[in-house]
Amino acid sequence: MTQEAPRIAPDMPRQRRETARDLVDFPTSIERGDTRLDVRLIDVSARGFHARCSDARFVRGEAVSVWLPQCGLVQARVMWGLRGCFGAQFMVPIDARTYPDILATLRGPAPANKAQGALPD
Question: How far apart are CA 48 and CA 26, in angstroms?
């Protein structure tokens, strides 16, 4: 006898994000009230981000601002927080025309392809 997969009841919180996230590894800072904290972005989308921060705990609903290249400080609301990491949703999503350039900066320069004549390190 096979077991049926659990179903999400209509009144349960949404378990999936509306937008897929892109993996990054980018050191930046968060402003939380009058405090600035160093964080590392783990993934990002035009609607939000996931970051690591060993110096603080974040709680759902908390307002923060994250520094992003080409945008400066972007306001966000914490959606979840665990020891050492948290996820937040931007108050205003990043413009779809701007997002690819921001993502490219967050990911850094593409590695040179040595097979195509790049100079050795």
Answer: 14
